[in-house]
């Protein structure tokens, strides 16, 4: 009775509130009209002033709307301003156009935008635009890597060196107080180790438009995902050897929390073959279930084992996901609140199939799961993000290029390879390089009985035998044709 | 001139018994080592034909002396063959994969052909796959219960570790003789499919019949002080082997019972196994008389102290020096101060030419004991003259001719490599220009401390002198400190202002610095400024210059820059040019117009700072010069003004203390309230946490808030422009937390992120009541450093501090290993001429380095071009 009464009360309260707001403030419709008015005016102006370069339309619109609201410009004034802006934009584009083929796309647009902004701020002459354009091109071209640069070593050092400054503390609250997440050095090591299962598997599940904004709907999905075992909803489980049955008393509070009923539990339990037909509800108590013991389970020890196994049976949810916590977030653009589910445990494959989530925005920290379900490119991307996040979280700046190189090295063979003797190093073609790293003796014995050849092409091998390794300035080889030299010498001699 | 040769490849294999005999200079036949006179016995393990061991001797085999004789192998014929411990696994595989009767691989002939073809194709391109294929073939053959060739029934073969093979069939225990015959029966083609190369490594050779005895140079004996010889571990082991071998042979020849022969055979197997590897699981390691396990062949190669990592991948070097470092702000960042003593020991080889002969003669004339002199002269024949023992230096100097090489002392201007361990990144070894100085320490500029991670609390550093012109020129163009100002880890300067440089820059550039003519002259003289002195900012009553004017003299004329300063926070916040607080830096056309220089402008490890863009846009030569001059200027100014941190800077009045205590009392009351709620079970539980955890979290929250409030109170009463605050605000040193801890309240001490709970049962220390979980009993310190800590507080503080020390110790080993693996995995990667990244073995890893070909070092915080910056650079003056 009381249960049924509660929600309706709440609802009525909420309604009352809404009505109050309505009285005090203009209606939603009015607000919308008021808000969209500048937008419409500006759109009208923009449609008259045609051919504003597409790169700048948004920028111009923003500025005009601003001016309309804060400077109270008339439509005509807006129009002339739009024309002026258009002229500036065209000028910028005309001058900077030649850089388009040289600069990477993102940089080009950034440059164009900066210039456009500068043009609005100051009087900029064409010559100055040209100087800036040329300087940008020159800067870009001169910032390219030099051939022979030992980028691998630099990347390894850039990622390894800050490791000494990282915290060792395994656990940290990553925004969510309720969950522990492995961070810092242990997480970094785990990533380069390509461990199959992370220390603390975790997922971040975004919901679809329907469920995103409503807490109760988000919780509903959370319940669907969270794995519930019998133990979670049981307050006691006693063995009754006289009747040869287990007496399982359910916890009504937990039942409500998990969104389960007794009948559902009985159904879920009876699904298993061994339990079919053995589960009965109690007639006297709505919270009690009887489970008959199999015949040969007649002593206490065996019965206890049976009980322990029974309590671990999954009633609902996704396997491996121990806890789901809905978290409130605010959309930085619209300011609207929405809910995201954070989970303890990860099971990408099963979660993707759940209805009500946004499958394109599911995140897991298990690289291995991403590799098997989404493929190697996704795994590479995930590796880059996870490593970068781990470093950033510790306040360490490492250029993304180093992390990309590391991830590429780990994934280039098509599967995620560990950084170490069971992965990248272990598969080097050079015997000496492998022997110098780890398991020296085994590598040498294996190499000798197979008759392996070390071609002395890598860095480690050449260091070992005392030759100059083909990297850096030594990458340059001088090719000489002795016959030609002879003829040159002869020519010189003849000349004298 | 010796012909230069390049090693193009190394082929690994097993020595053929015939080859062992052929390369042997003598058979080793006796276990005696020395005779009664102490001379080595012929045919013993120290046979003189195995190579020279004492200086002055001539080798009986090759006629060379100690320096040139490479040593020679002998050999030992074994009475019965034994298994080589390193190949047990492979032998086991072959025994299981081949027929016990005909020796053929237990796979039908046509399949073998197919696999052979496949293998040949795989070998070149996919060596890793080729290995997998051979494994697959072997596994497949092992499954056959019957030989597909001769139909013989097969039995499982068990390996009883370490070296015993047992057939669970009629043969029973397989002795090495049987195994050897079996292996010889396997056709070569079949061995190839299994991944073996019978030409260089026939598996039958893995059963040892002849043991090579290594030259004495490999196992030198050492002469102890008492005149007693102490033999190498390997020699001991060899003697054991020979002795057992003799006994075994005698037993066989005298027709001893089979059981005795077998026992001796097993013993021989044990000795040879431990001779090769003394750490075989399941075998007791051979021990020295002292009880320490012997270091035999495998142990010599293995691990960090093994041949590979200690002698091959890394080597000890000559021409190096090591001593304590100390600071010298009057050096250039490119320089290193070298003690005279070091400069007179380390040498640079100079080839005498007709252009430098006069100069070089002077060095030789000065000799090794007068600086700048020379230590050695090498004539064109390669003879080395030690000038220490030359009486007539004049004659040597006269005798110099082009073609001689003089090893002269280190002089100012030489390039050397300077290094501090741990060498975690390439900036740990940089090229410096020598500046010979009196004293006994290496001197370096303070701004290069961050890349080396050096301080002067007793740190030592190493110095290396490159010995060839190629090395010197590479060091000058690639390794010089100025080429490493910009870090490749992130796009930004790793070398820059630190500590007093930042305080000095702030003080000089702040609005309050008004300088007299004398001060301006002093400052400009300190940087050897030779230009005009600008118009004074104030003419009357006395000419006065602003610090900003002086700084402007160092900034190039066309430079435009604007950025928020570090001090721009709180009520000093400014984010554009209209700044009352002087916290927004504006430089237009090389003039510092507004704002102060602090960490955000000149700090080390600050990307997109004024310093960064100066270096990026004006080059490293300019960058070095700017830093040398500007930093010297800042330091001169801070010396002039005086800068110190005194107890007054952190002492707060009694009133403030009372306020802090009030805050603390309130916090205590709140904690008590929480505890009450907890005991009554009314405490709100944080979802996903237990009741206790929720309580702890809430207590921590309350207490940390209390400390913050205490800090705010202290800040309210302290002069916001006292020296400590200047350091914290400008980013020179310390943080507001440090000030809080010094002046107001130390706060909660923690171990593993929790309040301190360890100690006695139900309490941390015996002065507390059992079960007391209040703030003080759990490591909260309400005192400040300025007021002093009570003994109990000091104890908790020490406990928290200890955790930090342990943490660091553990972390270094973990991150060290991770770095070693990273380096070993990535070291072969190189950018090719087409901008792709490939391994040394030709595998493409990236088609475009970093997806845009850009070197992170040349970026501004990751971006190849910073569009806003380029616009500002050219028209920022508007």
Automatic annotation (TrEMBL), chain B:
Organism domain of life: Archaea
Residue spans crossing the bilayer: none
GO BP, sorted A to Z: DNA-templated transcription
Binding site for Mg(2+): 455, 457, 459
Binding site for Zn(2+) 1: 59, 62, 69, 72
Subcellular location: Cytoplasm
Domain RNA polymerase N-terminal: residue ranges: 204-509
Coiled-coil ranges (or none): 657-684
Positions that bind Zn(2+) 2: 99, 102, 147, 150
Cofactor note: Binds at least 2 Zn(2+) per subunit.
Keywords: Coiled coil, Cytoplasm, DNA-binding, DNA-directed RNA polymerase, Magnesium, Metal-binding, Nucleotidyltransferase, Transcription, Transferase, Zinc
UniProt-listed Enzyme Commission number(s): 2.7.7.6
PANTHER family on file: DNA-DIRECTED RNA POLYMERASE, DNA-DIRECTED RNA POLYMERASE III SUBUNIT RPC1
Subunit structure: Part of the RNA polymerase complex.
NCBIfam families found in the cross-reference section: PRK08566.1, RNA_pol_rpoA1
Function statement: DNA-dependent RNA polymerase (RNAP) catalyzes the transcription of DNA into RNA using the four ribonucleoside triphosphates as substrates. Forms the clamp head domain. DNA-dependent RNA polymerase catalyzes the transcription of DNA into RNA using the four ribonucleoside triphosphates as substrates.
Protein name (Swiss-Prot/TrEMBL): DNA-directed RNA polymerase subunit Rpo1N
The encoding gene: rpo1N
């Amino acid at each position: 009775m009381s249960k049924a009464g509660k929600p309706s009360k709440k609802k009525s309260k909420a309604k009352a509130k809404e009505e109050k707001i309505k009285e005090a403030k203009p209606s939603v419709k009015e607000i919308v009209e008021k808000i969209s008015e500048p937008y419409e005016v500006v759109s009208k102006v923009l449609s008259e002033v045609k051919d504003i370069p597409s790169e700048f339309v948004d920028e111009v619109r923003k500025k005009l709307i601003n001016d309309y609201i804060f400077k109270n410009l008339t439509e005509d004034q807006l129009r002339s301003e739009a024309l002026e802006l258009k002229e500036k934009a065209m000028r910028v584009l005309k001058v900077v156009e030649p850089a388009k083929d040289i600069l990477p796309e993102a940089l080009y647009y950034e440059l164009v935008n900066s210039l456009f902004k500068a043009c609005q701020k100051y009087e900029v002459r064409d010559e100055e635009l040209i100087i800036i354009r040329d300087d940008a091109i020159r800067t870009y071209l001169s910032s390219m890597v030099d051939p022979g640069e030992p980028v691998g070593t630099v990347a390894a050092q850039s990622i390894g060196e800050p490791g000494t400054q990282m915290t060792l503390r395994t656990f940290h609250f990553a925004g969510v107080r309720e969950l522990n997440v492995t961070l810092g050095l242990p997480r970094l090591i785990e990533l380069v180790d390509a461990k199959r299962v992370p220390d603390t598997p975790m997922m971040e599940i975004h919901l679809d438009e329907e469920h995103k904004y409503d807490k109760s709907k988000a919780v509903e999905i959370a319940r669907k995902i969270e794995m519930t075992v019998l133990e979670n909803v049981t307050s006691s489980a006693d063995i009754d050897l006289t009747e040869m049955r287990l007496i399982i008393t359910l916890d009504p509070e937990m039942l409500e929390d998990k969104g389960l009923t007794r009948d559902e539990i009985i159904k879920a339990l009876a699904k298993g073959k061994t339990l079919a037909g053995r589960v009965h509800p109690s007639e006297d108590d709505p919270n009690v279930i009887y489970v008959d013991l199999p015949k040969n389970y007649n002593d206490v020890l065996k019965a206890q084992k049976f009980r322990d196994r029974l309590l671990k049976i999954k009633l609902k949810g996704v396997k491996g996901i121990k806890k789901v916590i809905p978290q409130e977030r605010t959309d930085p653009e619209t300011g609207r609140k929405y809910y995201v589910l954070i989970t303890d445990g990860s099971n990408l494959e099963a979660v993707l199939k759940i209805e009500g989530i946004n499958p394109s925005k599911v995140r897991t920290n298990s690289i291995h799961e991403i590799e098997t379900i989404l493929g190697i490119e996704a795994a590479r991307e995930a590796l880059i993000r996870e490593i970068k996040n781990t470093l950033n979280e510790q306040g360490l700046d490492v250029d993304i290029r180093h992390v990309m190189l590391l991830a590429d090295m780990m994934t280039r063979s098509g599967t995620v390879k560990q950084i170490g003797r069971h992965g990248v190093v272990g598969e080097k073609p050079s015997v000496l390089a492998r022997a110098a790293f780890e398991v020296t003796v085994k590598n040498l014995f294996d190499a000798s009985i197979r008759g392996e050849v070390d071609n002395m092409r890598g860095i480690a091998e050449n260091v070992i035998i005392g030759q100059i390794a083909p990297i850096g300035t030594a990458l340059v080889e001088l090719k000489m044709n002795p016959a030609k030299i002879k003829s040159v010498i002869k020519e010189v001699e003849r000349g004298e | 001139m010796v012909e230069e040769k390049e090693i193009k490849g190394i082929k690994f294999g097993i020595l053929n018994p015939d080859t062992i005999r052929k390369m042997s200079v003598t058979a080793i036949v006796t276990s005696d080592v020395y005779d009664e006179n102490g001379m080595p016995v012929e045919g013993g393990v120290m046979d003189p034909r195995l190579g020279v061991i004492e200086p002055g001797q001539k080798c009986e085999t090759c006629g060379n002396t100690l320096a040139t004789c490479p040593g020679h192998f002998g050999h030992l014929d074994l009475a019965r063959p034994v298994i080589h411990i390193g190949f047990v696994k492979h032998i086991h595989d072959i025994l299981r994969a081949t027929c016990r009767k005909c020796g053929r691989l237990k796979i039908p002939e046509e399949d073998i052909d197919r696999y052979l073809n496949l293998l040949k194709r795989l070998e070149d391109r996919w060596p890793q796959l080729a290995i997998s294929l051979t494994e697959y073939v072997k596994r497949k053959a092992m499954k056959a219960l019957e030989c597909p060739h001769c139909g013989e029934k097969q039995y499982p073969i068990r390996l009883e570790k370490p070296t015993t093979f047992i057939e669970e069939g009629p043969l029973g225990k397989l002795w090495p003789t049987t195994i050897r015959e079996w292996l010889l029966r396997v056709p070569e083609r079949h061995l190839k499919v299994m991944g073996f190369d019978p030409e260089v490594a026939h598996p039958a050779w893995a059963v040892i019949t002849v043991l090579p005895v290594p030259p004495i140079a490999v196992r030198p004996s050492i002469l102890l002080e008492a005149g007693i010889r102490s033999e190498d571990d390997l020699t001991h082991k060899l003697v054991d082997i020979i002795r057992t071998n003799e006994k075994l042979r005698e037993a066989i020849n005298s027709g001893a019972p089979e059981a005795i022969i077998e026992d001796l055979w097993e013993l021989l197997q044990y000795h040879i196994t431990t001779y090769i590897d003394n750490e075989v699981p399941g075998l007791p390691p051979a021990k020295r008389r002292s009880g320490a396990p012997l270091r035999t062949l495998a142990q010599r190669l293995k691990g960090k102290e093994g041949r590979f990592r200690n002698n091959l991948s890394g080597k000890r070097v000559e021409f190096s020096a090591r001593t304590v470092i100390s600071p010298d702000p009057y050096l250039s960042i490119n320089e290193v101060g070298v003690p005279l003593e070091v400069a007179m020991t380390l040498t640079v080889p100079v080839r005498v030419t007709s252009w430098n002969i006069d100069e070089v003669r002077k060095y030789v004339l000065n000799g090794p004991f007068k600086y700048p002199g020379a230590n050695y002269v090498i004539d064109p024949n390669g003879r080395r003259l030690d000038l220490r023992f030359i009486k007539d230096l004049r004659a040597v100097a006269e005798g110099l001719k082009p073609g001689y090489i003089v090893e002269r002392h280190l002089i100012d201007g030489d390039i050397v490599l300077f290094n501090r361990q741990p060498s975690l990144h390439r900036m740990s070894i940089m090229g410096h220009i020598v500046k010979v100085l009196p004293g006994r320490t290496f001197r370096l500029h303070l701004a290069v401390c961050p890349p080396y991670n050096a301080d002067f609390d007793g740190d030592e550093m190493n110095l290396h002198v490159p010995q060839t012109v190629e090395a010197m020129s590479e060091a000058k163009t690639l390794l010089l400190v100025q080429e490493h100002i910009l870090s490749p880890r992130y796009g930004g300067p790793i070398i820059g202002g630190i500590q007093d440089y930042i305080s000095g820059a702030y003080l000089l550039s702040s609005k309050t610095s008004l300088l007299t003519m004398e001060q301006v002259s002093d400052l400009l003289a300190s940087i050897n400024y030779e230009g005009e002195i600008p118009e004074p900012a104030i003419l009357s009553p006395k000419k006065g210059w602003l610090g900003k004017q002086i700084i402007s003299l160092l900034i190039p004329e066309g430079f435009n820059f604007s950025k928020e300063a570090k001090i721009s926070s709180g009520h000093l916040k400014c984010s554009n040019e209209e700044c009352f607080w002087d916290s927004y830096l504006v430089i237009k056309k090389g003039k510092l117009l507004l704002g102060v220089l602090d960490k955000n402008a000149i700090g080390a490890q600050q990307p997109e700072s004024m310093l960064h863009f100066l270096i990026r846009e004006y080059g490293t030569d300019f960058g070095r010069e700017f830093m040398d001059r500007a930093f010297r200027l800042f330091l001169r100014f801070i010396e002039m003004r005086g800068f110190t941190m005194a107890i007054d800077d952190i002492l707060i009045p009694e009133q403030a203390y009372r306020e802090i205590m009030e805050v603390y009392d309130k916090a205590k009351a709140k904690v008590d309230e929480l505890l009450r709620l907890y005991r009554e079970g009314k405490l709100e539980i944080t979802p996903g946490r237990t009741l206790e955890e929720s309580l702890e979290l809430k207590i921590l929250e309350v207490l940390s808030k209390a400390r913050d409030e205490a800090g705010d109170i202290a800040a309210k009463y302290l002069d916001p422009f006292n020296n400590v605050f200047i350091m914290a605000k400008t980013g020179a040193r310390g943080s507001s937390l440090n000030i809080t801890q010094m002046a107001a309240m130390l706060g909660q001490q923690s171990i593993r992120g929790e309040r301190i709970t360890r100690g006695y049962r139900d309490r941390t220390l015996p002065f507390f009541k059992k079960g007391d979980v209040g703030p003080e009993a759990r490591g909260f310190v309400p005192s400040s450093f300025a007021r002093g800590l009570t003994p109990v507080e000091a104890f908790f503080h020490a406990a928290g501090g200890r955790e930090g020390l342990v943490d660091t110790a553990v972390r270094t080993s973990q991150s060290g290993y991770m770095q070693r693996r990273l380096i070993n995995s990535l070291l072969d990667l190189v950018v090719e001429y087409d901008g792709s990244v490939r391994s040394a073995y030709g595998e493409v890893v990236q088609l475009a380095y970093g997806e845009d070909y850009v070197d992170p070092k040349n970026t501004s915080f990751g971006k190849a071009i910073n569009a806003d910056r380029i616009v500002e650079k050219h028209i920022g003056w508007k």
